[in-house]
Amino acid sequence: MEKSYKEDARYYLTLASSISEDLSQHSELVMSEIDQKRAEIRDEINAIGGIFSAGKAVIKGKIKYANKKKKLKSEIDKELQLILNILSTADKLDPNLKIEVKDEESGNDFISSNTIRAGAFYSAARCYVAADKLKLAFEAFNNSYNYMPSQESLIGYAYAMKLQGGWGSTSKIVEAFEKVVEFDPYSGIGIEAAKEIARMQQK
User: Fold this and answer.
1) Residues 131, 129: Cα–Cα separation, whole Å
2) CA 40 to chain centre
3) For residue 187, what pLDDT is reported?
4) Do the Cβ atoms of 110 and 100 come closer than 8 Å?
5) Contact status, residue 124 vs residue 76, Cβ threshold 8 Å
6) Do 193 and 177 contact (CB within 8 A), yes or no?
7) For 169, which of 57, 60, 89, 140 is 20 to 30 Å away at the CA?
8) What is the pLDDT of residues 38-93, one digit of tens each?
9) 98 φ/ψ angles, rounded to the nearest 5 degrees
C-alpha cells in the first residue's frame, strides 16, 4: 500500500512539473509577444500624428491588446491553480517526495513540490507583468521566493516595482534592486541590478 501511495505521489509530482514547464515556456512566448505589441502600438501612435481615421485604427488595436491581456490573466490564473491543486494532492500522498529531472546545465537534479511551486509562481508572475497585473505579479514573485529563494524572483519583483513606479518613490525601486545585489553581487543578475541602481542614482 505504501508503495502505491509513493507511485501515485510521483505521478502527480511529475504531472505538475510538466505543466509548470509548459507554463514557463508560455511565459517566454508571452513576454516576447507583448513586447512586440507594445512596440507596434507606439509606432502607430508616432506615425499617425493627428489623423482621426488612423487614430481609430490605433484605438481598435489598443482594445484588442487590452482584451488579449485580460484573456492572458484568466489563462494564467487557471494554469497556476491547476498546478497548485495537483501538488496539494501529491503532498497529501507523500510530502517529502522528490523526483529526478534532467537539467541541461547541471545534469540530473532532484526537485520537490516546493521547487515546482516556486517555478510555477515565477512563470505566472512574468505573465502577470505582461498582462499589466502588477499587484498579482508582486504576490507571485514573493511566493516564488518564499518557496525557493532565487535571484531571478528578486529581480523580477524589482523590475515590476520599476514598472509600477515604486508608489511614487524611487528609493523603493532602488531598495528592490539592492536586494538582488545582496543575494549575489557578482552574478550576471547581480551586475544587471547594480547597473539599474547606478542609473537611477545618477538622475
Assistant:
1) 5
2) 23
3) 96
4) yes
5) yes
6) yes
7) 140
8) 555 455 545 555 444 445 444 455 556 677 778 888 889 999 999 999 999 999 99
9) -130, 145
